[in-house]
Amino acid sequence: MNTPHPSSATRVERDSMGEVAVPGDALYGAQTQRAVQNFGIAQRPLPRAFVEALLLQKAAAARANAALGQLPGEVAEAIAQCAIGLSESPGLMAHFPIDVCQTGSGTSSNMNANEVLARLASQQLGGREISPNDHVNASQSSNDSIPTVLHLSAALALHEELLPALDALQATLATRMADAGHHLKTGRTHLMDAMPLRLGQELGGWAAQLRARREQLQDLLNGPLSALAQGGTAVGTGVNAPAGFAERFAVELSQLSGLSLRPAPDFFAALSSVDTAVALSGALKALAVTLMKIANDLRWMNSGPLAGLAEITLPALQPGSSIMPGKVNPVVPEAVAMACAQVIGWDTAITVAGQSGNFQLNVMLPLVATNLLDATAWLARACRSLDEQALRGFRVNDEALQRALARNPILVTALNARIGYLRAAEIAKAAYAQGRPILDVAAEMTPLSREELQTLLDPARLATPEPPPR
Length: 470
Known about the structure:
Blueprint: E1 10-15, E2 18-23, H1 30-38, H2 48-67, H3 73-87, H4 107-124, H5 132-136, H6 142-180, E3 184-189, E4 192-198, H7 199-222, E5 227-228, H8 245-257, E6 262-263, H9 267-272, H10 275-302, E7 312-313, H11 331-354, E8 357-358, E9 361-362, H12 365-391, E10 395-396, H13 398-406, H14 416-419, H15 421-434, H16 438-445, H17 450-456, H18 459-462
Parallel strand pairs: 5-6
Antiparallel strand pairs: 1-2, 3-4, 7-10, 8-9
Helix pairs in contact: 1-4, 2-3, 2-6, 2-8, 3-4, 4-6, 6-7, 6-12, 7-10, 10-11, 10-12, 11-12, 15-16
């Protein structure tokens, strides 16, 4: 169980199950206190981003209720103002202590918000009685509010954190393609020497991967992630919500969040499944895979400095060994790879949670929300770290690139059309065995002139694809 609130003074609160002692200075009430006592497996609360989104949801619901005549205007506005003000408070999380591993609908967290806002709104209105259920939770259920907050918090995290970080990373790649893309290097397949290419082409491959991942995330943000469960209430029928509530709520929440939000096309699906969250998690996993590929390529290219590839030198950030003086390691790509591995693990948990939609409700919503937000935040920070601490500052070791190119027998592939694959293979094997440049060996083993061979084996020509025939 969670540890008690630090205050020794208590007050007595009552809910439908009876009386319970609550810390005297707590803004929350009986239902939150019961959850604090009952849940403590994760030993962490839901992320702040989720709580902030929950408070925006409450503010939008209050204003929608006022517009539709469900709440007095002054009550609704007091709830909305308290929600908005609290969401911006540095001490916010002290009022939302409930563990991630709680009731699977997130009812405890929903009531936590209802109780806190009821108390704050009552204080703002001079002690007027404000009910957590009848006022703050009017026209709502935990069963449509928590899925709504899940979508909202994930959408805000994408819009405000991850997509900007991806844009910055792509901008840096574009800069490095421009300033270092001309360098010729040995290509590698199966980690073995292959045909040459330009560094800009290699970086361009990374940029294309990131561009595809960003488009996938943007499509989810513009599409199903912006569709909200609010209005379905308990099971999807909308019981206890007035006509037009879902539409008005979406308008109010769009204004508060700066996003373009709308009611879900089917409330039964929106309550009983987290398919959109599973799809988003899959897209985050795909981005993690892309970032891990880039991180590992950087590690290989930086390897050395004497016995590795040594194609580039990453910024030296810290000593790399407690025993080997002078050693410097590719610490940022390693850190990014670890973050990506964790995101892949979170995706597995979300996939399992997605199967827990029993009849009209999914019952692993807090876990899904936590993992989605953690994954989004970790990936955003990983993108910025890779951008600012690795890609912006790496130096190209052109001498090492040229040395490897000159000794690459695979360049003989360019002679296939003139002398045939088998003869070219003999030349490559001889060059390998003798440790000599392919140009010298080919000049001895073919009737082609040295000048023609220099043209055919020119790495710059080989790295420039010929346009397809018209």
